[in-house]
Amino acid sequence: MLFRSRHHPSFRLALPGAKRSQSRGSVNTVSQDPARIQPQIHQARAQGQPLREAELRAQLAEVHSQAKQWREAAQELHWAAQLALQKGAMALHAEYLFEKGERLTHAPELAASAARALRKAGAAAKVSGKLPLALTAAQALVTLEVEQQAWDRAASATGEVIELLDSLGRRAELCDALEKRASYLHRMDRETPSELSREGALRDMGRAVALAELQDDLRRSVELRLMRRILRDFVWEEGAPISALHGELELDHDADPFADESIGQAMAALQAGMSETGARHATAARDAALDSADPLRYMLASLLLAEAAELAGDQPSALSALLSCKATLEKSQGKKAGQPIRLVLDALRHRWGDAAMADAIQAYSDQLQ
After folding, report:
1. Is the overall model pTM greater than 0.90, yes or no?
2. d(Cα 132, Cα 259) in Å, to the nearest integer?
C-alpha cells in the first residue's frame, strides 16, 4: 500500500442481560429460546420487578436480532426502556433507547423510527449525565442521516456531536467533526445554494484549523487550510489559486509540506505566472512525495501541477494530474482521501463549462490509449 490509511475505532454498548447481535453463538442457552424467556418475563411482571423484566426483554431482543427480526427486537427494547423509565433509571432508559435505535438502523424502511429513537436516547443520556452515551447516540444518528443523504439533518446531528466532544474535552475528534459538518454544509449548498451554508462551512473549517494548531498538529492544520481554500476560492468563488496558499503560512517544521523545496519553488513560479517552471517543480515534488509515501505532499504537488497546466491552457493535462491524484489517494487511503480532488474537479466543470470539460475528458482518454 502506497500510503497508510487512517482508522477510527468505534465502540458499542453492552446492555445488562444481553449480548451484542454481532456476537453470534455467544448467547447462553436460556436467551436463545424465546419460549423460556417469556414465562420469566411474566413472572417478573407478576412479582413487580420492572428492571428484571426489562433485562429479560433485552435478552429477547437479542434473540430477535440474531434472527434479523429488527422490528420485533426494537419493540422489546421499547418496552425495556419504558420499564426503566418507570423506575427512574434514566441511564438504563437511555441505553435501551439507544439499542432500540441501533436495531432499527438495520432496516432501511425504519430509518425514521431509528432516528427518533437515537434522538431520544441522546436526550435521556444527557439528562442522566451519561455524555459518552449521548455522544455515541449522536454519532450513530449522523451515520444514519448520511446514509439517507439527508445533509441538513446530518449537519444538525453533527452539531450535537461537536457540542458533546467539546464538553468531553476530546479536541482531536472535535477537529474531525467540524470538518465533517463543513462537508455536509457544502453538500447542502450544492442542493440548495445558500450563503448561510457557505459561511457555516468556512467557519467550521476555520475553527478546525485553530484547534489543530492549538494541538501543534501542523500537518493537520495545513490539510485543513488546503480544504478551506478549495471550498472558499475554488468551489464557491473563482478567487486565489492553490499556489497562493503559501503566503498564509510561515512555518518551519518537519510537518509543513511547504518546507518541501520543490513545492515552494512551484508555488513561487506559479504566482509569477511561470507555468512551465511551476510544472517542472511540481512534478519533482510529486515524484518525491510518491517515493516518501506522503499523501498530503502528493496531493499538494498534484494540485499545483494541475494549476500549472491550466495556466498554460492545457486542460487535458490539468485533468490528468487531478484524476491520477484522485485514483492514487483513493486506492491507498480510501474514498474520503479523494474528496478535495473531487471538489476541484466539480469546480473546474463549472469554470470550464460542460463542453470544455467533455473535450478535456476525451483528450485525456485519447492520451491513455
Report:
1. no
2. 40
